[in-house]
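Duplicate of earlier report; Tyrosine recombinase XerC input re-posted below.
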Amino acid sequence: MVKHIEKRRRVYYAMLNIPAAVRPAFNNKRKLLKSLETESISQAQVRVLPIIAEWKNQIEIAKGTSTGDKFLDDVALARRDAQRLRSQGVPEWAIEEAQEQVATSEALGPDNTHDHGDGGQLFDAVSVALGKRLLLSEHIDSYLNTTSVTVKTKEMIRRDLVRFTSKFRFADDATQRAVRDWANIDLEEANLALATRRRMLSACRGYWDYLERQQKLELPPPFHKVLPPKPKKRTKAEIEAKRKGFRVPDYHKLLAGCQDDPTLSDLITLGAYTGCRIEELCGLKLTDVRTDRFELVDAKTEAGWRTIPIHDHIKQSMARLIDTSKDDYLLSGLTFNKFGDRSNAIGKRFGRLKKRLGYGPDHVFHSLRKGFATQLENAGQPLNVVARLMGHTQDNQSLGNYSDGLVLEELKRAINHVDWSLR
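Output:
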């Protein structure tokens, strides 16, 4: 069974063991249990994440872990106190009354004049602890744990949310007018482009949706009509359609230009004869390579999980790369960036090469993939064969939903129509 999930009868439950040291704060329970209200394991795996994140947060509160932030520590203190009182059977209204009385005393100070009080900080902390106010910065990590995006994208979202929650401490601070001023005045004065501001608001909108679903936030989203309407722009497909494909002379020009960089030369050759994306080739592991084919199991989309026959022209190159690899990858020696991407550095080397050879922004590494597709089309290969080789979604429902794909021999016959040799 998946971690933190139990099946009881036909329904899945979220489950988390409570450390013995903090069980008194949970009425001496040994574990936390909550129905996920589904019989589907895939749905359960999605629904369990925010619940476990919240439970772990409660356990950390009960442990009294210091955050180094006085306000957050005050919130944790108020929550621990409330948990202790609940375990003793104290009713909720009495807990609220007692905590607010202490907070009011702190705000007034010893002379009851506010002059030497805490400015209402403890009262705000108690409001958060009692669920009366929502501290926006508190749930960012829990939200990011529920997202299925790349590490790089996750860090970008985190930066956007930190900026948002630094401006708006509590959810009720983020009114539509205040958010509009922030997006159109503060961020513009920080020289952020309109597209960047739209991206930031999109991240904030996703976070707000999460807070509505998982943290019982009932305030209306403050992001409607905050920025001016987006002008109509070309879609990603339209942009890619405008890119130029490399032709046979271009391919040989590229190879001649990188004779002092054998790894880049191998990458270009593989791109030309497989039609793969640069990320797919740089992430290809030896365990996924056979003598006559290789499997792409970590592609950009589900349709991209595919089998590629090894073209006759690159059989010797593939064998050499396998024999000389010093790590687990076909293209050995590439470095990871901080987001776990092996294609970043060599992609920049390709960019410098093509620029030095006189190619502009309409020629990129993807242009080899475009040239690969062009050759298959000119060879009269069926669309479904081309789609299988390139990892594109099948538009036909019968093929897309029910077919397991073409046999290897058919794919091999098709791919060997690709020919980058000079005539």
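Residues 156 and 200 are 9 Å apart (CA to CA).

Merging into the original ticket.
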